[in-house]
Design brief:
alpha/beta; Rossmann fold; globular; 341 residues; two-stranded parallel sheet
């Protein structure tokens, strides 16, 4: 598929003032709403990104329903916040997380890595196998720059690995809602959240009207700073699990990436005092990149009951680690991938 945009296009759009980004997002939402004759909905997670998008949509005066997929994996604060909002429909997955882990596998590192591992295990010497072990070559005969050989040690991990939990727990109930109502989704994801999302945005843009599942992502060119500044500027109520929004201490050593703060905010970089990302409490995607304290170390203090359930338990069944009645057994998996908890 040919790209519609370049990385430079994204950087330019990310550098625009927040006021312009709001207008551009409203335009994309309206185009989506008009194209589908109003048969659209907002995928509302209860997190700060979708909270901002819901605020924008509600201020537009469009009667667009929100759909919250209650997987049981969200923070209890997120669940309560989402259900308390106006015009929200709650849907649920057909099976629960322990069964997903047993039937599919544990989500580790990233969706891309997990998919590569499961595919490589199922087909030795295939493209995924070569990608995982660094033998896939580019057109010049050199090792492909997208090889994942740094994760080849996971190939023999004593547990199943899979990226399918999100598909089963979130996308499947959403797609069922879409089939039953005919509505098309609006999602508050941003292109800078992962390489895969950036690639898809370059190929499809914000509004993807074609394909098997037409989808609108009207905040693709936003950054987390845009979200935090929007909440602060418009006094948007948001879930308490994030804590307060404050100016980041000036002695912080984090590097400022190009485009994220260019010509914006006069150096006022914001952060949350609680969790910075929410999503599923027990997800291990990206946990190896978390700063200390990581998501599980935080959970131990803020949500001890959920922590004990996800870290504890587990047992070997036919040589594979699985959840059991005592818990999900994530401690075993985290030990294997070297993540503290």
């Amino acid at each position: 598929m040919a790209n519609r945009h370049s990385p430079g296009d994204l950087e330019q759009m990310q550098s625009l003032p927040l006021k312009i980004k709001i207008t551009m997002t409203e335009r994309r939402v309206f185009d989506w709403y008009e194209y589908w004759g109003g048969d659209v909905y907002l995928a509302f997670s209860g997190g700060k990104d979708s909270t901002v998008l819901k605020h924008i949509i509600d201020n537009m005066g469009l009667q667009i329903p929100s759909v919250f997929v209650n997987t049981g994996l969200e923070f209890p604060e997120i669940q309560a916040f989402a259900k308390a909002q106006d015009n929200v429909t709650v849907v649920r997955p057909e099976i629960m997380f322990p069964e997903v882990l047993r039937n599919y596998g544990y989500p580790v590192i990233s969706k891309e890595v997990s998919q590569c591992i499961i595919t490589a295990r199922n087909k030795k010497d295939g493209a995924a196998y070569k990608k995982l072990f660094g033998t896939r070559l580019d057109k010049n005969g050199n090792p492909n720059s997208f090889n994942l050989d740094r994760y080849a040690w996971l190939y023999d991990a004593p547990f199943s690995i899979s990226p399918d939990c999100c598909n089963v727990m979130k996308k499947k109930p959403s797609k069922k809602y879409e089939r039953e109502t005919g509505r098309k989704p609006i999602i508050a994801t941003m292109a800078d959240e992962s390489r895969l999302r950036k690639t898809k945005w370059m190929q499809q843009g914000c509004n993807s009207f074609e394909g098997k599942r037409p989808t609108s992502k009207p905040m693709s060119f936003w950054t987390e700073q845009d979200v935090l500044h929007y909440i602060k500027e418009f006094s948007v109520p948001y879930c308490s699990v994030y804590g307060d929004i404050r100016i980041k201490p000036q002695d912080d050593e984090d590097q400022i990436t190009f485009g994220e703060y260019l010509n914006q905010y006069d150096g006022e970089i914001l952060e949350t005092t609680g969790y910075s990302r929410t999503g599923c409490m027990f997800c291990m995607f990206g946990a190896h990149l978390d700063k200390c304290p990581n998501r599980f170390e935080k959970m131990k203090k803020t949500h001890p009951r959920q922590y004990e359930y996800c870290i504890g338990g587990g047992e070997m069944v036919d040589g594979k680690w699985q959840p059991n009645k005592q818990g999900l057994g994530l401690g075993f998996v985290l030990d294997y991938i070297g993540v503290k908890y």
